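agent: user wants the structure for Cobalt-zinc-cadmium efflux system membrane fusion protein from Mucilaginibacter auburnensis. delegating to structure tool.
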Amino acid sequence: MKLIINLLSFTLFISACGDKKPAVEEKPAAAESSIVTLTDVQQKNAGIVTGKIEQKEISSVLKLNGQIDVPPQNMVSISVPLGGYLKATKLLPGMHVNKGEAIATVEDQQYIQLQQDYLTAKARISYLENEYKRQKDLNQSRAASDKVFQQAEADYHTQKVLITSLAEKLQLVGINVSRINESNISRSVNIYSPISGFVSKVNVNIGKYVSPTEVMFELVNPTDIHLGLKVYEKDINKLYIGQKVIAYTNNEPDKKHEGEILLIGRDLSPDRNTEVHCHFEDYDKTLVPGTYMNADVQVKNVQAAAVPNDALVEFEGKQYLYKVIGKNSYEMTEVNIGEGENGYTELIYPSPAIKNATIVVKGAYSLLMKMKNKDEE
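agent: tool returned. relaying tokens verbatim.
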């Protein structure tokens, strides 16, 4: 019985050892899959040149996005100072208007009353002026008291103030005082465009009463449009006034619009970004306010770890370089790359082991081919 137990224990031990043996054998194979070793002849034929990762100043592109904006002085809200009913307008969003063009007609009985008050006050001024002069002469000859003269003087000057204020009110609503008289009183007024531009909003319809505080139309002068870009806090120090910007829309990515940075905001939003305003070098009528755009800004890195382009190889969608680990022996190491310039490519956040290693700067492609051939054998 004891002999049977010992035989079973020995069998299980042998079986367990047999199960572990493949795992021990697979480990070196996995480690060697990224290592390539050349003979002296292969080393010479491959033209391998080694070196160190260098520090280079490489231009990179900062990609931003934003939308077309218009400065406040180029946006106009149209309202009626005294209110009234909208009698006529032909405006539609997107229409072009010229400065001084009549864009709407508003009517109300208060316009009639205002003209009546002005003409009545103007008609009375002659009487009050003559009365003032008469009382002045009588007062100088002591034929009239100072009180009567002073009252006539006050009435005359008060009437002059009334006429001036009524004339200003008429001018405010767009009525030319020189054109009104007792036989020419209008119940409506025209609203004129103060700028040349495009209609962005129409908030009223025919027959609607518009109060003085209500915005009827919004006009935009697009000749000084800006591009407002969102920039995160970490990238603000890469930008400066006058820096060149290349902008484009998603619909026409090949159509580039050149500009430069005009203003950099200093207030951060809750999302830790600020707005950068850019001015276009040439005005393009196809760029309307609210259009979303992408922008590329050329920025300079202070110093970046970089390698020659020949040091990098692409394999299965990833970038690699070869690190020297012994005589004629190299290890394939994955890296993240950034921008390239003048034959060099930036390495993004390389580990200290990579930054201080000796790498293959020329002939990396030959090593990649050697590894592929080895895998196919």
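agent: one observation worth passing along. The two ends are 53 Å apart (CA to CA).
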